[in-house]
Design a protein that fits this description.
Layout: H1 8-28, H2 31-34, H3 40-44, H4 48-61, E1 65-76, E2 79-88, E3 95-104, E4 107-115
Antiparallel strand pairs: 1-2, 2-3, 3-4
C-alpha cells in the first residue's frame, strides 16, 4: 500500500519508533544511530560535526526532548509529512517536530526532520 493511502494509525506505527530513535540518538549525540533511517539525500545535508553542534546547542538552551503529541499527517504522492507538538525539559512552551517519511526499496526512510 502506498504511504499516502495509509491511515494515521498505520503511519504512526511506522514513524513513532523512527522518531523515538532520532530523539534518543540526538540526546546521546550518536551520529550513526541518528542517521540509520535517513535517505542518502538527508545524510548528505547533515554531516557528523553539524549534528554534534546542533545537539550541543539545543541541549544547553532547551534541555532534552520531552513529550510530543501528534498533530497531523500530510499526505502527498511518494511521501508523508508528520507533525507533532513537541516539548523540551528546560524550555517552556511548545515547539514543532516534523518528519518527512518516504518508502524506498521496501524500507521507510527519513528524507527530512526538524524540531523548531
Amino acid at each position: 500500500m502506498d504511504l499516502e493511502e495509509q491511515s494515521d494509525a498505520e503511519i504512526l506505527a511506522v514513524v513513532n519508533p523512527i522518531m523515538d530513535n532520532l530523539m534518543d540518538a540526538s540526546a546521546a549525540i550518536d551520529y550513526e544511530r541518528h542517521v540509520r533511517d535517513f535517505t542518502d539525500r538527508a545524510k548528505s545535508v547533515l554531516p557528523k560535526e553539524r549534528l554534534q553542534s546542533i545537539c550541543e546547542e539545543y541541549q544547553s538552551t532547551k534541555g532534552f526532548f520531552a513529550k510530543r503529541e501528534f498533530v497531523a499527517a500530510f499526505r502527498r504522492p511518494g511521501s508523508i509529512a508528520v507533525v507533532w507538538r513537541q516539548w523540551f525539559t528546560k524550555h517552556p512552551g511548545e515547539f514543532v517536530a516534523e518528519l518527512v517519511l518516504v518508502q524506498r526499496g521496501g524500507r521507510y526512510l527519513v528524507d527530512h526532520v526538524m524540531v523548531f
